[in-house]
Specification:
The structure is a homodimer of 408-residue chains. The first copy, chain A, is built from 14 helices and 14 strands. By secondary structure, chain A is of the alpha/beta class. Chain A folds into two domains: 136 residues, Aspartate Aminotransferase, domain 1 (Alpha-Beta Complex); 242 residues, Type I PLP-dependent aspartate aminotransferase-like (Major domain) (Aspartate Aminotransferase, domain 2, 3-Layer(aba) Sandwich), CATH 3.40.640.10.
Chain lengths: 408, 408
């Protein structure tokens, strides 16, 4: 009886539900929890670098002083106070935005969900870097949008390839809704879009009538202090900006935002209210107090230094252990490096061997909608300490050598 | 240039975006904030009844003791600890569920969004009570589902009408995806489904292959202690249950849940992860500590007593002031009563007069997808104190009399 009822529910689901399949990435994260396992998989921020006692006291104070508001329903747009502070945070990357253009969401993931819901009919095309954020692919699939990847080199997406991709899609009669990009310390590649190309990318998209969705959770986590101007600064009318406190403060609060032109932002609010009524007021007030009462810029420097050291340890271990013919990116910020193995070496197969050897990572195919990335993989260096990263890379190199048929 | 860019964004939006129009309800809530205005509009819980100092200390303790987890990413399903506590909460209404069937969400609004996303193609039909929750109508519209209303009498939805509606829709070739119902202290009507009809409704839906989405935020807020068994208890395989801590604890945390059969719950998790990655871990841990460390059942009794007294004051004022030919429901729990004016008296027009007189409410048409409810309105008695409710009803009665052309 149970079986029958369940089967009939599945049969009655919407067409889009066909895309709601368990991702192989989920299994990787489950494996990460096994004792003795070194995880190069999850992009978790290193929260032990936060002044937790002070934050705990601050959070208690928020509820003591403003509990009747913090625990109540709030504005569907988010609090005005936080929207103003968000504008100050964005100034660091050159963005000049008004609070009226800010929609606060339960994390920037939700910002992407809302933008996609607002713009994408089934069969519409989203252009994305190849590789791109696995969680973005889940959003696009959930609205039956097709994804066209544009290759990156060490300077980010290649403008000529972007232009050619747009032209080819249009020639094929496709409707392109937006170019989704993570221009800074891209997840998963660690690559940043060069200054020169930013203008080119913005110009191409403007000329072709393709909006840009700029996802920038890592932009402030630069190892050398170099902050490139956001794409939004170059064309505020055509770039929807997704921001997040998950990597510069705390993901457990689920607080992010979208910046968009007025007509778009108004509809995003309606879509947001349908999804969650309002963002968590407690979370918003905690972020407000964090930005106003703590040295949040100094904390970004602290985080960046931790990640820089871990990145350095990871790259050193890669240089020491990886077999010939393997190469990887050299990030200058963020959480990730992207490793390319010799052609034909399948990282889904390497993963099984690696797990036996006590290390997990996310295979490259997870970051492509089109089956790409099979000989690639992502290493997250944000969470594990440097010695574990080094040991993890060593184990990984052995698993790769085994897959390549080389003695370890 | 700005104008042009904005216009072109609107033109490029998805078909579903046509439904993302500002609701007239929004304007009502804005008006509520005016000085001197008495609001009978918003269904906000009365949080001043909470032991706020103790809660503040508890929230601080959560971060001090478990901050590295509370501020980090968590499971996409929600925490196992909270899922188990949710099962204990649901036992009060007879539900026997397993934590594996629980998907925690950023409020039960998000549960409804996910269920609708999972099941509804454009043109599919959702059956709902008439009137029903305005926020549910926004969800259905966002996925281009059509809504068919089923009338209620004082015992809730009429089973024969439900059966006739289903038969007529099927005869018209429509695909019905589920019956959305608020069986306890319905928002906006205050009506509860009688015990006898619960079995009939469940039987009809099972026989017709129509799932039930049971939305139950108010069920525990009974004025007389009478808790009817949830529809879920009668057919767990065919009833998806939406629960919420917003009315028994605090909406600002945005913590709710869905209970569903395994195959449905698994896909809800995938949809949930695409929307918010995970529910706020801080919020979940705060709720965990509230349920384990506070007299949460005693607090429900406290809340219920407050709402019962306010309901009593509201009904007494209605009896004293309302013109002849007006009638209203007599709730035995929850936040709302539903007022029906003489035929032809348009509550959208009454609203303008009422605002001049210093009182706002939500006109009945907001709670129908089909233009119904024009001579009806909702009064929320949950938030304003009894003397304000009485004065608000008096002002409202004068506005109605003015609209009816009677001397006040």
């Amino acid at each position: 009886m149970t079986m029958t009822a369940e089967l009939s529910h599945v049969a009655r689901m919407a067409d889009r539900a066909a895309g709601f399949q368990p991702s192989p990435v989920r299994a990787v994260f489950d494996v990460s929890m096994q004792p003795g396992m070194i995880s190069l998989a999850g992009g978790n921020p290193y929260l032990a670098a936060l002044p937790m006692e002070k934050i705990a006291a601050m959070v208690g104070d928020v509820v003591a002083a403003r509990g009747l508001d913090a625990l109540q329903y709030g504005s569907g747009a988010g609090t005005e106070e936080l929207a103003e502070l968000i504008c100050r945070v964005m100034e660091l990357e050159g963005i000049s935005a008004s609070p009226e253009n800010v929609q606060i969401t339960a994390g920037s993931q939700m910002g992407l969900e809302l933008v996609t819901k607002l713009f994408c009919n089934p069969g519409d095309v989203v252009i994305a870097e190849g590789p791109t954020y696995v969680g973005a692919l889940g959003v696009f699939e959930g609205f039956q949008a097709e994804v066209a990847h544009v290759a990156m080199d060490e300077d980010g997406v290649v403008p000529e390839t972007l232009q050619a991709t747009i032209s080819a899609l249009k020639a094929a009669g496709k409707t392109i809704k937006f170019f989704y990009t993570i221009p800074n310390f891209n997840n998963p590649s660690g690559i940043s879009l060069s200054l020169e190309r930013r203008q080119q990318v913005v110009d191409i998209c403007r000329a072709e009538g393709v909006a840009i969705v700029e996802d920038n959770p890592y932009g402030l986590l630069s190892f050398d202090g170099d902050l490139k101007p956001a794409l939004h600064t170059l064309d505020p009318d055509n770039v929807f900006y997704l921001g997040s406190f998950s990597k510069i403060f705390a993901p457990g609060l689920r607080t992010g935002w979208v910046v968009a032109p007025k007509e778009v932002r108004g509809r995003l609010q309606i879509a947001s209210e349908a999804t969650t009524i309002c963002p968590s007021v407690l979370s918003q007030m905690v972020v407000e107090q964090y930005i106003t009462g703590f040295d949040w810029r100094g904390q970004i420097d602290t985080f960046s230094a931790v990640y820089a050291a871990r990145c350095h340890a990871t790259l050193a271990a890669l240089a020491e252990h990886m077999p010939e013919g393997t190469h990887w990116t050299t990030p200058t910020g963020g959480f990730f490096t992207w490793v390319t193995l010799p052609e034909g070496c399948d990282t889904d197969q390497v993963l099984a061997v690696a797990i036996e050897a006590g290390v997990v990572f996310v295979p490259g195919s997870a970051f492509y909608a089109d089956g790409g990335g099979r000989n690639q993989l992502r290493i997250a260096f944000s969470y594990a300490p440097a010695d574990q990263l080094a040991e993890g890379v060593k184990r990984l190199a052995e698993a790769i050598k085994a897959a390549l048929g080389q003695a370890s």
